[in-house]
């Protein structure tokens, strides 16, 4: 996650071809969306993505960009539980799950 956040994802040898193709599209679609061309989507097509799947990728990238901009624009900060989950890798649980599992 840190490599992706710091734009060093290309250095990760463990990424699959699918993950590399998704990162490549997400990066360009996020940074220079007006420069996206048909060829940018071809690696995903070659991996079996159809037009619906490509649209879904575009939506996911767009939603993450949108939410990040809102959070940054309003100065939102992560709560303690979310920070702890990101540091430990232990998933957040819904309040009902917390009381039922206690």
Question: How is this structure best described in words?
Answer:
By secondary structure, the chain is an all-alpha fold. It is built from 6 helices and no strands. The chain has helices at about 1-5, 15-30, 40-45, 50-75, 80-90, 95-100. Helix 2 (about 15-30) runs antiparallel to helix 3 and helix 2 (about 15-30) packs across helix 4. The two termini are about 30 Å apart. The model has no long low-confidence stretch (mean pLDDT about 90).
Give the gist of this structure.
With 102 residues, this protein is mainly alpha-helical. The chain has helices spanning 2-5, 17-31, 38-46, 51-74, 80-88, 95-101. It is globular and about 45 Å long.
Going by helix content, strand content and strand pairing, the class is mainly alpha
Helical content band: 55-70%
Characterize the overall form.
globular
> How is the main sheet built?
none
Computed CA radius of gyration, to the nearest angstrom: 17 Å
- Would you count the extended β strands for me? 0
* Amount of beta strand: under 5%
Span from first to last CA? Answer: 30 Å
Element order: H for helix, E for strand: HHHHHH
Mean pLDDT equals 89
Unreliable spans: none
Q: Give me the number of helical elements.
A: 6
Helices and strands, with pairings:
Layout: H1 2-5, H2 17-31, H3 38-46, H4 51-74, H5 80-88, H6 95-101
Keywords:
102 residues, globular, mainly alpha
